[in-house]
Every structure is written in C-alpha cells, then in structure tokens.
Amino acid sequence: MYRSRNRPKRGGEDEVKGPNSALTQFLREEGISAENIKQKWYQRQSKKGEDGKGGKSEKEQSTQDDDSTTQVSQKEVIEEEEVDDLELGSGSETGKAEIAYDARMNLVAADSDEEEYETNSASATPVNLSPAKNQESLIKKRQNTAKIIQNRRKKRKRAANLLDRRVNKVSSLQSLCIGKISKNISKWQKETGDSSKLVFNRLRDVLGGVSTANLNNLAKALSKNRALNDHTLQLFLKTDLTKLTFNDCSKVSFDGYKTLAIFSPHLTKLSLQMCGQLNNESLLYIAEKLPNLKALYLDGPFLINEDTWENFFAIMKDRLEEFHISNTHRFTDKSLSNLLINCGSTLASLGLSRLDSVSNYALLPQYLMNDKFHTLSIEYPLNEEYVNDEIVINILGQVGSTLRNLVLNGCVELTDSMIINGLTAFIPEKCQLEVLSLEELDQITTDSLVYFFSKVELNKLKECSFRRCLQLGDMAVIELLLNGAKDSLTSLSFNSLKELTKDAFVTLTCPDLTYIDLGFVRCVDDSIIQLLGEQNPKLSVIDVFGDNLVTENAKTRPGLTLIGRQSDSI
Amino acid sequence: MSQDPVILVSNDNKEYEIPRSAAMVSPTLKAIIEGSFKESKGRIELKEFGSHILEKVVEYLNYNYKYSGVEGDDDEDIPEFEIPTEMSLELLLAADYLNI
Questions:
Q1: Residue B88 and residue A172: Cβ atoms within 8 Å?
Q2: Of B60, B70, B71, the CB nearest to A173
Q3: N or C: where does chain A have the smaller number of CB atoms within 10 Å of the terminal CB?
Q4: Do A206 and A143 lie in a common domain?
C-alpha cells in the first residue's frame, strides 16, 4: 500500500496503518510535516520581502502576495486531493470532511488576504481581468492541474503495483473484496465502539460460508494493513480452520492468543509472526488447549523465558512435528536441547533463525532421528563459527537422505567442504530436494557446486537461491541447468553474482520458471532480458535492481514484468 | 459450442444475461456450462445470491473479460472496480463460490 509521506495527522494512533516507519509516526506526532516547513518558509519569505522591499509600492506587493498565496493554496488542494485518493481507507467521511475543511480554510485565507490588500491598495487593482476571461483561465488551470494529478497518480499506481509484485492487471474479485473488508474493518470497529461485538457477530455470520483459504487470505490482508488485533482476531475464532497464519501479530495481546487457543481447537498448524506480546502463560495455554497442534512457527516471541520453553516442549513431547523459531534472545542452548530431547524423534521440520543465545548447534545431529525429516533451516547464527562445515556435514549425514528443503542462509563459515563432503556425499543421487537456499555463503566456489550438480540429480528442485554467493561463476549456473533441475525450477535467485557473464544465460531455458532475481548481476542487459523472456515461457517477473544496462528499451514479451529498472523510477 | 449468451438467475428470479465468454472467466460457471446437465443450455440458477450481488458479479465478469485481454503498457487505463463497502462481505462469498 502506497502512502504519501506528508500525510497530515488525523485522528489518533489508530490511524497508523500500513508500512509506516517509527520516524514517520514520530514526525506526525510532533506535527512536523513538509507542509509546515513550507508554510514557515513562505512566511519568512514574505516577511523578508516586506523588510527588504519597503520602497515597493503597495500595489505590487499585493499582487505578489496574491500569487504566492493562491499558488500555495492550489498546491495544497492538489496534495490534499491526492492524499485523499491514495488513502485506501478513503471511505472515511470524517477524513474527507476534514480535508475539504482544510482546503476551504486555505482558500478562505487566500480570499480574505485578497480583500484586505484590495481595500488597502487604491482602486486600480491589478487583477483587472474581465470575469469571463478570469473564469476561463481558471477552468484551464483546473484542467491542467487535473491532468498533472492524474498523471502523477498513474505513475504512483504503477510503481506501487510493481513493488507489490502485482503482475495480473485485473485482480480477482476475491482479493478486491478482501481488500475492501480489511480496509474497513477498523472503521466499523471504531464506529460501533462498545457494541463492536455485534459487528463481529454479523461478520462471523456472513464469513461463516467463506472458504478457509479466503479466511487465510483475509488474515494476510489484515496483517499487511497492520489491522490485526484482539478485535479482528475474533473473525478467526470458532471456525474449523486447521491451519492459520498471522503475518503480523504485533497488536495481538496475550489475552488474544488465549482466546484463539480456546476457540479454535482444531488447529494443527499455527504460525504467529512478530508475536512480541506472546507471553509465557499464553504459550503454555496454546500447548494445552490445542490438542492437535503439530506445527508451530514463531517469530519474535521474546517474552518466553527458558523455563517456559522447557515446560512447553515437555507438553509437546512426541507431538511436535514442525517447529520454526526466529528473532528471540531468550531461546537458549538449554531450550534447544529441551526441544531436541523431547521432540527430536518426531520433528520433521526444524527452523532456527537469528537466535542470538544459541551457540551449540552441534546438538542437532545427535537428536534428529525422524526418518521422515524433510526441512532444515539454519539461518544467521550470532557468530559465524557456531555453524561450521563439520556440524552441517554431520546433520546431513543424519537426515540428508530424506531432506526436501535445505536453507542455510547467512551461515558464512560454510565452505566447499560442506558442499562436497556433506551435500554431495549424503544426498542420494536421485534426490528429493525441492528448496535449496545457500544465500550469502561467500566461501563456496564454482568448482564445488559444479561437482555437486554433476553428481546429484535434482529432478524435483523448485526453488534455488545463491544470492550473494559472490564467488560463483558461469559454470555453476550452466551445470545447474544441465542438471535435471532445469525442468522443475520455478524460482531462481542469482542476486549479486558479480562474476556471471552473458554466457551463463544462454542455456537458461526452464519451462516452469516463473521468477528470477538478477539484481546486481552487472552483465545483464536488454538483450539478456529479451532472451530470457523468449526462452522461458512461464517467466512472469524478473528483478533487475542495480542492473544499469537494463534500459527502457528492453523488449519483454507480454506477461513479463521487470522490477527495479532505473528508468521506471518516479 | 454455441456462442449464445448465458443467463444467470438470482434467488428473486431476476435474470442477467452475459456473453458466454465472459461467464467463462469463472471456473465454476465454466464447469457448469461445459457439463452435461441442463444448465449447459445456458440458463444457470444461482439461488444462493440475491439480485444485487448477482448484478455486481455480472458487472465484474464483464469487467474482467474486457480488461484482462488488454496487453501492453496501457494498464493505467483500466478503471478500478468499485465495490460498495456494505456489499463486500456477501460479494466475497459469491466470488469465493464462483472462484473469481
């Protein structure tokens, strides 16, 4: 969602929606805006003018001031209008009224100035145009500004769509409706005040018939608008949902989690991202009240302490199959060993990311005993030495034969040894890997990957990312494409592989490829973009941030979008 | 396959005629039209939806059919599809059912 920077403050903090930064909020709270600054500047200018040009005739001054004030007011009106239009929740009547009021105020101010000066100055006013002519020029001016506004709006809309990766020009009716609902949900809530329960009862009655897929879409839309809180959470209660994902729970209180646990007993998979308010009590509540829970994905549960983790894993013993955790410093080595001791034999999917109190990753290979283990994700350890070749080789020796998803982003200590003695050695020749992500491993080289790709057939590989593996060259890419992976790949990232040359892309023909990230691959130019479009029939998005050789002249077939092109900037 | 328009009937028996190709935008309607039941003759009763909802659905089907074929950079010319706020919930149900 695109939001204007200098949007004036209206309403309380409830108004904070969408991706606003803390700085924006601060500036807004303090009443600092570009508009204010501009106003001050004009005031200062006019003061200077008065001081400096004392000798100037009153008449001249009046025209000048007239111009500047009308200009200002016109600009303001334009901006206000734009803001109004861009505001997704523009349905709010009060907002509109306020804007209209502001605009009127500005115009009135300008008018009154005019009158004042006109009465001051002698009867020979410079604004001596006949009323008809005056009106005509005014209409023309209006038309011009309308055109400018429209163009600007178009540009912004296009840019916003590009950044949202909205490739389909006509969005589905479902997404339009969900957008509308999520926009208005907080408004409805506000309007009804204490009787908000009624609204939600109605919502629930109507939404009862909505498929679970759309409920999850609604959760996504609410999270995106930062509108998910204890009230809106009620939409998801008393449903038959078995899988639920909230991408932004920052406003859900610990009570909210408890009600969720009580009223959605069928949940088997729960994902709570940014769940900063999840406390010890509610986590244990979730474990107790959701008897079918098998998969838990948590991001940012920093209120949960060591003891609670211990209790939690004891409750979830032999039940937890998937556990992913990220961004908390209270998850320690002890918590990790509790997890592995209690649930190690049932775990089939494990994710550890940005855990600043975990160092003993060497525990993993001892406990991961499940012969159906399929997903391993270890990302960004606090100290790079914590995750070294030996540990990963040991883990792969344990679970490599069944692994489907492997993510080792940001484990920068890993070297070629891991690729050769780990991946190549323990992953079976006809492997099941679907996701392979080795981002930022700047020590791995082309040679080891060429060896790996030549030994192992990656017939099922769908997503592959070598983002910022800076040493990789053409041969690694070519060998990957000679591998069986060519026919199954849907998403590829070669971001920042600066050693690549045009040769790497000649053989890039993947029938199912839909997305490729070529950001900061300097050799990419218009001809490569055209070639990729022709060779990959399903390709719909190419990221080209930082590729200065990709210009507006790049020929893309219909249905293929370039994102991040320099010439597209506004 | 005939190219006759398709008639959609709401629960209060109001009829809405739309081109067959526009109805094909919805996978649900497509399956109904291409099926071997009497609906394939071109009269589909959608008794779950009131006429105000069905009217909007028809509007969307036409809108989607008209603009999704447009290629090139002129995507700015596509007008926004207006949904009245009070209708959004029920419309979501319909859209969900019709998979559009």
A1: no
A2: B60
A3: C
A4: no
Q: Please state, as a whole number, how many other Cβ atoms lie within 10 Å of the Cβ of residue A21.
A: 8
* Residue B39 to residue B22: CA distance in whole angstroms: 16
Q: How many CB atoms lie within 10 A of CB A44?
A: 10
Same domain, residue pair A31 and A156:
yes
pLDDT higher at A356 or B73: A356
d(CA A171, CA A539): 19
| CA neighbor of A361 nearest in space, from A344, A341, A337, A345 | A337
Cβ within 8 Å, pair A91-B85: yes
In a shared domain, residues A95 and A145: yes
Q: Which element (helix H / strand E) includes A535?
A: helix A526-535
**Could A558 and B83 be called an inter-chain contact, meaning their C-beta atoms sit closer than 8 Å?**
no
Cut 0.80: pTM above it = no
State whether A154 and A225 are in the same domain. no
Is A273 contained in some domain?
no
Between residues A414 and A52, which one has the greater pLDDT? Answer: A414
Tell me which range, A41-50, A312-321, A552-561, is most confidently predicted by mean pLDDT: A312-321
DSSP for residue B87: G
| Partner-chain contact A203 B68, CB within 8 Å | no
Find which of B28, B89, B90 to mutate to test the A interface (most A CBs within 10 Å of its CB): B89
Q: Cα A372–A375–A376 angle (5° rounding)?
A: 120
Tell me which H or E stretch contains A353.
strand A349-353
- Amino acid making up residue A105: M
Range of the domain at A222: 176-230
Measured in whole angstroms, how far is the alpha carbon of residue B1 from the centre of its chain?
19
Residues of A in contact with B79 (CB under 8 A): none
Is A275 a member of any domain?
no
Tens digits of per-residue pLDDT, A469-523? 999 999 999 999 998 899 999 999 999 999 999 999 999 999 999 999 999 999 9
Nearest to A204 by CA among A182, A184, A232, A226: A232
Chain A closest-CA separation from residue B91 CA (Å):
7
ipTM confidence: 0.87
Contact A214 B63 (CB under 8 A): no
Closest residue of chain B to A90, computed from CA coordinates = B85
Are residues A98 and A186 part of one domain?
no
User: With an 8 Å Cβ cutoff, is B57 touching chain A?
Assistant: yes
B-chain residues near A177 (CB < 8 A): 83, 88-89, 91-92, 95
Interface test with B, best of A173, A175, A207 (most B CBs within 10 A): A173
